[in-house]
Amino acid sequence: MHRGQCAYLGKGLWSKRLTEPALEPRELPALDVVLLSHLHGDHFDRVARAQLSRTPPVLTTRQGAQRLTDWGFDAHGLDTWAGETLTRGDETLSIEAMPAIHARGAMAALLPPVIGFLVEHQIGGAVRRRVYVSGDTLTGDHVNDIARRHHDIDLAVLHLGGTRVLFHTVTMDGKQGVDFLERLRPREAVPVHYDDYGVFRSPLSDFMDRVSAAGLGTVVRRVARGETLQLG
């Protein structure tokens, strides 16, 4: 999607893109796997459908996998806490679906189910890195469940933005993002998903101000659009 185009969010809801993407799907390097928290237009749009290779497996919700399979993708639907393992030589990538809550109350029935991901990379049986990807979620007790199972997360990728749909917040704003970090306690965190669409109501500056006030400034790493982050 390019700036000015609209992404379909389901149930007759659309949102205009405000920024240009860092890369087109066809410009990506060869991928081993695609992680998709849910099938919404701001995560998987018509450009991705047209350009993304059908070769790598796509791990997502069961609902999303059904539609992606119809489109010719090698889609695998995961329930919460279920996972898959990819192997190449002496390297393994274990991917586990994490609980996520896109909305509460009446709005929950209008939005599709979502999952996050815990990715563990091993070489020769030794764990090298554990990366958590939140997907679109609110904070809450489910984050405590994740922390109890995985208390040694190296990096958390947090979807923020404070998305507002029909007067409901359906992704974390700055306040929720800090609460999420305090529950999860990763070694480092990278904020994403906060300025691309008109439905985003909580700017990154709000999150960063709250991060600083909570004494978490050394935990959060900002990554500019198009920038590459070196893990570890």
TrEMBL record:
It comes from the Bacteria. This is MBL fold metallo-hydrolase. PANTHER family: METALLO-BETA-LACTAMASE DOMAIN-CONTAINING PROTEIN, UPF0173 METAL-DEPENDENT HYDROLASE MJ1163-RELATED. It holds the Pfam family Lactamase_B_2. Residues 17-194 form the Metallo-beta-lactamase domain.
